Amino acid sequence: MSSLKSLKIKSGSLSRLAKDKIVYIKESEQIKLKIDELVKNNADEWDIKKQREILEETLNMLPGCDKRIAVAHEDLSNLVVS
């Protein structure tokens, strides 16, 4: 595989992973707002609990994103150096 092709693949992968992280962050912010609205409107406790579970799952995705971004960054850096 050519160096240029590898560079495009690795940089594209890093870019996609960074976008994924941004999506998770935005999603978690939206869920927090939804929870605040539910609490403010005295919504059913089950609905609030479910949204908190969804928020927790979303926030749990962020450390994995960080690890994958670090690995992709390292791969790209190694390719550029070599």
From TrEMBL:
Return the InterPro entries for the record.
Answer: TBCA (IPR004226), TBCA_sf (IPR036126)
One Pfam family for this entry, by name? TBCA
Query: GO cellular component annotations, sorted alphabetically?
Result: cytosol; microtubule
Q: Which residues cross the membrane?
A: none
Q: Per the record's keyword annotation, is Cytoplasm included, yes or no?
A: yes
Cellular location of this protein? Cytoplasm, Cytoskeleton
Gene Ontology BP terms: post-chaperonin tubulin folding pathway; tubulin complex assembly
Keyword Transmembrane in the entry? The reply is no
Q: Which GO terms describe its molecular function?
A: beta-tubulin binding
This protein's UniProt keywords: Chaperone, Cytoplasm, Cytoskeleton, Microtubule
Q: How does it assemble?
A: Supercomplex made of cofactors A to E. Cofactors A and D function by capturing and stabilizing tubulin in a quasi-native conformation. Cofactor E binds to the cofactor D-tubulin complex; interaction with cofactor C then causes the release of tubulin polypeptides that are committed to the native state.
The family line of this record is: Belongs to the TBCA family.
Q: What is this protein called?
A: Tubulin-specific chaperone A
**Organism listed in the record:** Smittium culicis
